[in-house]
UniProtKB/TrEMBL annotation:
Residues 15-48 form the Rubredoxin-like domain. Its cofactor is Fe(3+). InterPro entries: Rubredoxin-like_dom (IPR024934), RUBY_RBDX (IPR048574). Pfam families: RUBY_RBDX (PF21349). It comes from uncultured Rubrobacteraceae bacterium. This is Rubredoxin-like domain-containing protein. GO terms for molecular function: iron ion binding.
């Protein structure tokens, strides 16, 4: 049997930021329903790397 040490675990919270591609607003953690700044929907958000990780 071979183990897979680098297999990602589901349910584990990874440090993820979301950035609104319309206005540049950044959100930490969960993706909001819509941008609190410009009001665009969550489909306008892109995942961005978290600084410091
Ligand atoms: Zn926005």
């Amino acid at each position: 049997m071979t183990e897979w040490p680098s297999e990602p675990q589901e349910g584990e919270a990874e440090p993820i930021n979301w950035a609104c591609t319309n206005c540049g607003y950044r959100v930490e953690g969960e993706l909001p329903e819509k941008c609190p700044d410009c009001g665009e929907g969550k489909e306008m958000f892109d995942q961005v790397p978290v600084p410091g990780y």
